[in-house]
Amino acid sequence: MRKNNVLAFACLTVLLLQGCARNKAPITAPPKAGNTQLTTLQQCFNDATTLVKLNKKHQKDYNDLYEVVNEAKGYAAIVDDSSLSVKSTITPLFDYEINNRCNNISQLLITEFKSRTLKKYSSGADI
Hints:
Number of helices: 4
Mean pLDDT: 80
Order of helices and strands: HHHH
Distance between the termini: 51 Å
Strand content: under 5%
Shape: elongated
Structural class: mainly alpha
């Protein structure tokens, strides 16, 4: 139960750090000490921002992450009014969706860096 509240709090905090604007700016405020979920989520947004800077075709991945976190924020606002069966189903669903999107973004970022590195070295350019 405590993990669910921590996730809901982390999602809500991240979105509040971003502000209410839909400009999809990267999170710049440092996370609270000891909150690894927030740190992981902040790093995920940082990776997504870097990915978009490297290749604009990944803007949809960033937007999708932003939307699922925004949905988690909405869920966090009403979770206390939900039944235990809803909480035990939906909270892990949001955990999975956010983690899955973050893992996907990490893999895309690695692939993008790898592609750029191989392209640079295969063209004979020096670092």
